[in-house]
Specification:
This protein has two domains: 148 residues, 3-Layer(aba) Sandwich (Rossmann fold), CATH 3.40.50.10950; 159 residues, Isocitrate/Isopropylmalate dehydrogenase-like (Rossmann fold), CATH 3.40.50. The chain has twelve helices and ten strands. The strands form two sheets. A six-stranded mixed β-sheet has the order 7-6-8-5-4-9, sandwiched between helices. A four-stranded parallel β-sheet has the order 2-1-3-10, with helices on both faces. The radius of gyration is 20 Å and the shape is globular.
Amino acid sequence: MDIITKLRAKAKSTPRTIVLPEYDEPRTMEAARIIQEEGIAKVLLLTPDKIDAGEKQRYIEEYYQMHKAKDVEESVVRSLFDDPLYYGAMLAREGKVDGMVGGAAHTTADMARACIRCIGVEDRISIASSCFIMAVPDCLYGDNGTFVFADCGIIPEPNSRQLACVSLAAAELAAKVLGLVPRIALLSYSTRGSAKGRSVEKITDALDQLKQMAPGLLFDGEMQVDAAIVPEVAGIKYPDSPLGGKANILIFPNLESGNIGYKLVERLAKARALGPLFLGLNKPASDLSRGCSVQDIVDCVAVTAIRAQ
């Protein structure tokens, strides 16, 4: 059974309610039909008749109270809620739905802003970030071609603390959703001191912080990607690494490398890329590429539903 089939089956085992705010987007409408038919989740397609005027007004007032210290004007908040995205995110905040998926008709920045401001960031993780589940066909690396890539969607230049938090959040998702034992590689142009630079120093500091945050996790760095995922290369470049070239979670040093990396693998290796899946929020939420397929939406809903179980 391939990883996508497993994810759908796992979502079906305990169905959760996922809101889809892009009600008039054709791919979203078709995905909602498939999800309902297959029993993957309970879908709330947020058509205008599903939006309660009184509840919307209450959400506007609540949002304004939460963010008025940032000089947000109530008229601006009211205009934000013209977009169902914010109403859907507030439903997730209140627990009236178990999670949210959108992005077929919104940018990642739009999605992240609505989710962070409405759903909120989990105190324990302290930052919002994102990851992709990568399913690479006919691949011996990772876990039979399954990887988690992070952060590929939110933090442009993560500092060492943020890299540690991203690593922890990605590991927790890999364990819960995919059932993997996390093996985390913090990637670089250097493998364990083969080159110098501020980026290398940042990763060294991130490793120290991650040891304090989660001493039981298996992680290592800094390392080049071939030393992270190819055992034969690891044996030459970094024979003492506890990962042994078998990393299944790849932590990128910045947003540029993460975004480029996942898109290269998706296109050149014909991989499935599920996400960006937001990490570090109080409730699960997933973004979509605006170039997503119907099946991408279905599978992101499945992952979001599993995270809510």
